[in-house]
Structure formats: structure tokens, C-alpha cells
Fold this sequence. Notes:
There is one protein chain. By secondary structure, this protein is an alpha/beta fold. 38% of the residues lie in helices and 26% in strands. It has ten helices and ten strands. It has a six-stranded mixed beta sheet with strand order 6-7-8-3-9-10, sandwiched between helices. β9 (203-208) and β10 form a beta hairpin. α3 (93-100) runs parallel beside α6 (137-149). The chain is globular, with a radius of gyration of 17 Å.
Amino acid sequence: MLKVENMEVFYGAINAxxxxxxxxxxxxxxxxxxxxxxxxxxxxxAISNIIKxxxxxxxxxETDITGLPPDAIVRSGLVQVPEGRRIFANLTVxxxxxxxxxxxxxxxxISSDIEYVFSLFPxxxxxxxxIAGTLSGGEQQMLAIGRALMASxxxxxxxxPSMGLAPILVDEIFHIIKTINEAGTTVLLVEQNAFKxxxxxxxxxxxxxxxxxxxxxxxxxxxDDAVREAYLGG
Length: 234
């Protein structure tokens, strides 16, 4: 479904991504794990063409999307939930969800997707008229995911969805991600909580200083001594 080939990104003289390549197959949950500064968020931004690539090719659903503008990439079905949520704080919950559907014209399906989001996140229904900036951190993360779902993604890119959340909310968010995947949406998950990410994903890629240093079955990586020592606290 998604194929990234030899992708390189520079920030000035700094080589942030060093020729990384990986694939995401339809129906999978794939995770990219790594420490701060490894290049995880840069990878997602480069896929979405939010930042420019120095080199590489990105294919999505057998179409070359390497040079497409970000809005065209969203229209193709590849949608990102950014790190830090980045909701529209001055709009209501419902207005944020409506903004997620700005590329769509299928009004009847949009209405049913609103109901789907509210079924996933009942608290958003309760707070539909509330100003989004007044929501709790967990509710804002739910809204960020719900807003992305309103774009009707084939592949959902999730950037650090557990960041700053209490453990009980982390469990809830990961349960929702699993539910979204089981409903038919493929997921590429960037996450510092390696234990939770590997527990959810079928396969994983480990990034270190802009390079993929290891990849494989998530459950096998959970047993890998080097992975456990570096990312799972031994």
C-alpha cells in the first residue's frame, strides 16, 4: 500500500534521514519506534510532503506521490494525526470534525462518518459544542484522531498519540487505534512508548539517527535483548 524508497531529508547541513526504505501493507498496523531525534516525525512529515525530501520515492496505492502537495496527498487517502494534536483550539469540537472533511463533497457519507467518530469517542458527542481548546489532553487527542478520520483515510499516520497522557488514557487510545484498524483502516504508528506500540503492531521498524537499524515481527522484537535494553528498559 505504502512504499518508501531511499528517502533522505536534510535540515541545513544535518542529514536527518539517511536513505530509509520501508513498506506498509494494506490492513496492517506498522510502527516506527526510536528515541527522541531518531527521525520518526521527520519520516511522517516527509511522506506527507510537509517537509521537502532531498532524495527518495514514495508510492501509495501504486501511485507515485513523491511530489504531490500535502492537500492532494490527503485527498488520495493518506492522512496524518500530528504530534501535539494541533486541533483548532478556538473552534468547537464539531467544527474541528467538519474541518477534517474539508476535502470531501459526499455530504451523506460525511454525516455517517460523524456518527462513526462519535461512536468511537462518546465524550466528543457530549462535548460537540464545546470549544476544543478547553478539552483535556486526552479528549484533544481523541478529537485529533476523529478529525483525521473525517478525511476518510485509507492509511492513517499517527504521530506520538500517547504523548503526555495518563496510563489509563494511553490504554484507551491504543484500544481505539486497534478498533480503527479492525474496521479497515491501515495504520502507520510513530510512538515512543515502544512496549505499547510493539504490542499493537504486526511489524516494526527501529529508527536510530535517521537510519533503520532493525525491522521485523513486532512480537519477535519484543523478545530481542538489544531492543529490550534500548527501548523497553531491559
